[in-house]
Write a structure and sequence with these properties.
Elements lengths: L1 H12 L1 H16 L29 H7 L14 E10 L9 E7 L14 E5 L13 E4 L13 E7 L2 E4 L2 E4 L1 H8 L5 E8 L12 E7 L3 H12 L1 H7 L7 E7 L8 H10 L4 E7 L13 H7 L1 H9 L3 E7 L3 H15 L4 H10 L3 E5 L1
Parallel strand pairs: 9-10, 9-12, 10-11, 12-13
Antiparallel strand pairs: 1-2, 1-8, 2-5, 3-4, 3-8, 6-7
This protein binds flavin-adenine dinucleotide and adenosine-2'-5'-diphosphate (A2P).
Flavin-adenine dinucleotide (FAD) binds next to β4, β5, β6 and α4.
Length: 362
């Protein structure tokens, strides 16, 4: 499984920042700077030096120093955290295609404590053995909850999982881990690794703008961001007063497949100045060419406003979900940029370097 192998490599590489982090902590502990390294709600970093709005200058140093407290690989595949399942329910409405579940685990009582922040992923080791009698490899899943969890108590983590199913030689094959997760029951024990990933972290700036492009379960990290921004109990917990504009583009095959739609509609009515929600329902709507409506078609429809936002260096763009959407998004951004007299192939690397273009596709 390519991703599992990749994740193990990522896990190995993650030792380097851990060692650097340990050295940093030791130095600061000696100098009396560190007495509380709780990661529940890290203190806000100092405001970055304002950049001229026309530049895409990389706030590189500021960004790296902000991310130094983000936990990685607290639990590794050889000694995973043993959590227990609290909840597992379908996110789909009647008539939807496939199976997508919201699953919550109790992660309390770990030593070290299992911490994470919005935008990270965890690894799951499915029970049982593979065809060679070896334990299954880990699969990564984006975390769908905020660091405070769905119950705001800081001791749970939630996932949004689609069961993988495909046809091979006339038979339906069920994905190992996604089926294990969709079938798991409250009370069951589960092996969890991580957390991993710093690619999809939210900016700390309360004035940041956040454009989100999600297909299917790619909504998972976005759900965490949006709860952090707009869910009242979560706001009270995090003390983060989001004042920017958040714009979610969500792709689903049918209306019945839209994920967390009621919550997002509620945020839209409660925060009309701060939240925009645009849906692309591929099998119910058609694009300008008469084909399936994808999020890249919605990007094109809103090109002018999107690029006005991108010109502001406080705007971050997040892409999550199907790997196949990347070329389509690139094509749409190329066309949209050209309409504003910009060159996307030059702009995208600049945004990436500035830590404003965040991609996690699978
Ligand atoms: P497996 O049993 O491992 O089967 C997958 C394998 O089946 C593939 O490697 C391929 O060899 C084969 N296969 C797949 N499709 C076909 C096909 N059509 N024809 C022939 N062969 C095929 N998933 C989520 O549901 N939610 C998430 O939030 C999520 N987040 C992720 C975040 C990251 C960073 C990454 C890397 C992946 C994420 N995934 C997520 C995907 C997840 O890790 C698993 O890959 C997915 O659940 C499938 O695992 P599985 O064990 O069920 O499938
Ligand atoms: P479709 O399957 O109709 O072609 P889910 O994971 O729930 O199936 O949702 C994924 C959504 O992303 C679907 O609406 C799917 O459309 C859509 N999609 C599929 N391929 C692409 C692509 N290349 N670019 C953008 N969206 C895509």
């Amino acid at each position: 499984m390519a991703y599992s192998e990749a994740s193990v490599v990522i896990g190995g590489l993650a030792h380097v920042p851990v060692l650097i982090g340990a050295f940093w902590l030791f130095q600061n502990w000696r100098s009396g700077l560190v007495n509380d390294i709780s990661l529940r709600e890290p203190p806000k970093a100092a405001e970055p030096t304002p950049q001229p709005s026309s530049s895409i200058a990389p706030p590189e140093a500021t960004r790296k120093s902000r991310h130094k407290d983000v936990p990685v690989n607290l639990y590794k595949p050889r000694s995973p955290f043993i959590g227990s399942v609290l909840d597992n329910y379908s996110l789909l409405q009647e008539g939807a295609i496939g199976r997508v579940n919201h699953i919550t685990f109790d992660i309390s009582g770990g030593d070290p404590e299992f911490n994470y922040v919005e935008g990270q992923s965890i690894g799951i080791i499915p029970a049982g053995e593979d065809a060679n009698g070896k334990p299954h490899k880990i699969r990564l899943y984006s975390i769908a909850s905020t660091r405070h969890g769905d119950n705001f108590e800081g001791n749970t983590v939630s996932l949004c999982v689609r069961q993988l199913q495909y046809e091979k030689d006339g038979e339906t094959v069920d994905g190992v881990c996604s089926t294990y997760l969709c079938d798991i029951n409250p009370g069951d024990k589960i092996k969890i690794t991580g957390p991993v990933g710093k690619e999809m972290l939210l900016p700390e700036d309360e004035d940041a703008n956040v454009i989100m492009l999600a297909t299917g379960t790619g909504i998972a990290p976005m759900r965490a961001y949006l709860r952090r921004m707009f869910e009242q109990a979560e706001i009270q917990k995090n003390g983060w007063n989001f004042k920017g504009k958040a714009w979610l583009f969500m792709g689903a095959p049918k209306t019945a497949n839209l994920l967390y739609d009621d919550d997002f509609e509620r945020y839209k009515s409660e925060f009309p100045d701060n939240f925009l929600y645009t849906k692309a329902i591929s099998r119910e709507q058609t694009n300008a060419k008469g084909g399936r409506m994808y999020i890249q078609d919605r990007v094109l429809e809103n090109a002018s406003e999107i690029f006005e936002m991108i010109e502001n260096n406080k705007t971050h763009i997040y892409l999550c979900g199907l790997k196949g959407m990347e070329p389509g998004i690139d094509e749409a951004m190329t066309q949209a940029a050209a309409e504003k007299g910009m060159n996307w192939s030059e702009l995208r690397p600049q945004l990436k370097k500035a830590g404003r273009w965040h991609v996690e596709t699978y």
